[in-house]
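ugh ok fine here u go
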Amino acid sequence: MSGNITSEYGNIVIDNEVIAKYAGQAAIDCFGIVGMASISVKEGIATLLRGDSSTKGINVKIDDQNNIDIDFHIIVAYGVSIRTVVSNLIKTVRYQIEEMTDMKVKNINVYVEGVRVID
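structure:
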């Protein structure tokens, strides 16, 4: 389901993929986030996603009341406080998505799938 906003200019439909891309960019800009992760079901191994494929580590759901739920699968930098990084991610993404869409972000779930040393 996509987000639907009615304004004085008409109806605006925002696709889930657009929200995922915007949320992904906001997340990547957060300190301590190396990138989004994809999990191999067969091997159970987290793979760092690059570029346009980074939205595969993000799942966006929009309910009938235009409330957004976002799931992130991330890889964090080695040596950072995971709690601090995730808290910053949630605050940043919630603020930016709500400002961009004028929709409510109900839940942000973060799954830390791995840790990487940054070169």
